[in-house]
Amino acid sequence: MKRGFVGESWSVPFNEGKLYAIASLIPRISSPARCLNIGCGEGIIAEVIKRKGYLYYGLDLSKGILRRARCSLGNNNIFVQVDANYLPFKRCCFDLVIALEIIEHVDNPCKLLKEADSVLINGGYLIISTPNKISLEGIKGKIKSLS
Q1: pLDDT tens, position by position, 77-128
Q2: Which domains are present in the chain?
Q3: 137/15: higher pLDDT
Q4: Contact call for residues 58 and 78 (beta carbons, < 8 A)
Q5: SS3 at position 143
Q6: Which DSSP category does 58 fall into?
């Protein structure tokens, strides 16, 4: 997996364990439904979402990252360059909204959550992940930076 700064944006350090855990939270559906991935980066979870039966919409601020996502994932996905605080969608139009490792990067997390809620259908799913800053790995990094 890619890690650290890539081009114009951060590439999320997802490993197979984290992807599996997130994938297990995504409900499989039988009829077409729509998933909005806020801060999609290179669309690392797009294939998992599509296998679960969703149409995939990926949003990111970085035009370069979205270009790479389109190249690697093809044209059967929708990618939009947009600020997550101002989602350009109608109310209640997504069955699933995902924001992986992005909420800690926005200036106003409450605004992001309100926007996500506004586009989520009644009874829809919202999945958010954020790094655990006090994990052993995080502490190890802080200790190294102090020495």
Answers
A1: 888 898 888 999 999 999 999 999 888 888 888 999 999 999 999 999 999 9
A2: 4-146 (3.40.50.150)
A3: 15
A4: yes
A5: helix
A6: E
99's CB contacts (< 8 A; 6+ apart) are 37, 38, 39, 84, 112, 116, 126, 127, 128, 129
By 3-state DSSP, what share of the chain in percent is helix, strand and coil, each rounded to 5? 35, 25, 35
Closest Cα partner for 96 from 62, 65, 58, 68? 58
pLDDT digits (tens, 9 = 90+) for 32-78: 899 999 999 888 888 889 889 999 999 999 898 888 888 877 777 88
Find the helix or strand (DSSP H, E) in which 100 lies: strand 94-100
Q: Would the pLDDT of 7 be above 60?
A: no
In this structure, what are the phi and psi dihedrals at residue 53, rounded to the nearest 5 degrees? 105, 10
